[in-house]
TrEMBL record:
Name this protein carries in UniProt: hydroxymethylglutaryl-CoA reductase (NADPH)
CDD domains attached to this UniProt entry: HMG-CoA_reductase_classI
Family indicated by similarity: Belongs to the HMG-CoA reductase family.
Organism in which the protein naturally occurs: Vibrio barjaei
UniProt keyword annotations, A-Z: NADP, Oxidoreductase
EC number(s) given by UniProt: 1.1.1.34
InterPro entries reported for this sequence: HMG_CoA_Rdtase, HMG_CoA_Rdtase_cat_sf, HMG_CoA_Rdtase_CS, HMG_CoA_Rdtase_eu_arc, HMG_CoA_Rdtase_NAD(P)-bd_sf, HMG_CoA_Rdtase_sub-bd_dom_sf
Amino acid sequence: MPKVNLHKRDYLTSIDKDLTLTEFDAKLSPKQHTPSRKVNRSPYLTARNVDYRWGILDNSEAKSQLLDPHTKSQMDSYSKNIEFFIGTLKMPIGTAGPLRVNGLFAQGDFQVPLATTEAALVASYNRGANLITACGGASAMLLNEGVTRTPGFAFKSLIEAGKFVAWLVTQFDHFKQLAESTTSHGKLSDINVNIEGNHVYLVFEYLTGDASGQNMVTIATNVVFDYIMTHTPVEPDYAFLDGNLSGDKKANSQTLRSVRGKKVTAEVLIPARLVEKYLHTTPKKMAQFGQMTTVGGALSGTIGINAHYANALAALYIACGQDAACVAESAIGMTRMEVTDAGELYASVTLPNLMVGTVGGGTGLPSQKACLDLLGLHGTGNSQALAEVAASLCLAGELSIVGAFCAGHFSNAHHKLAR
């Protein structure tokens, strides 16, 4: 059946109704007048620089909100995490839980801090968490770890590319020594070679300990990259530190079968009576919803199938000092719901791209450390547990939102809580 457009309106066709061609040209043309004074004279965080910036911004009301006395007293804490500092942003934080996790690393009942401005979100995750806990908890398993950086090299021919690879595969031990000389935590575990015509892409895979690790692997790979460019017997026409094969901060399908960051799966088995009690629907209807939305996801070209991992991960990442932009890749994964022979609901999630850490980055900032402390997961030895909690949280959210759609409560919940 052909696609039917019930209503179609080209926005640009309305321009001539509002603007003359001269006005249109004037709005979009470059402007050469002298710009206003630069707020960003120096990137460094000092009291003098902060005062200078606010002197240019000249907005006392905004300053009172962003540079309050408490923030001012903690300014030094932010010096390694931000440039051109002017203050801090306050976001509401709620907790979802208790969320019981029975993992290889995460064990116990967790109150999960979520930073968001979206009404109904924390309530939804709280409902799912309580359902999981009532069932005895989610079983969670860390499956794999690894963070990548992917240099790319261009040669004149496939012959040159082949000669380059023939030399390169003899150098792993030296590359490993060079890479690991830059970090006390990172370990180069493998290098995969991908040849595409006269281009060569190298996938450097690292273990990064309890750090999320993007900066760590970039610095380590750069040292090896410089060595390659200096010592290769076949000089490339051009080369770059990353050839965009890593999937860094981009939705990508390759990690569905491999890993970037931490790969975790979590599951729960829910009796029908608890599905009815907490979600006001049935296992059969939830499984039917899963089947229909899996086909819908395939029709739309979705990478993986899930309802809204991004909601959980964005709120958790912001609260706990993770790199929020990594939600673009971390929110890839598979949700599955089935009815067992006993009439129970089996639900599972698998997330191959969880970029989380409990040291480094923003994890040591005052508010973010406080959130990790609420979880009991700040510091060395806790990143694997944080990944298992994150996956279990996503499972809670999937159960709650699917239940809401099946019970016809989704719109009503947003209407009630958002207004």
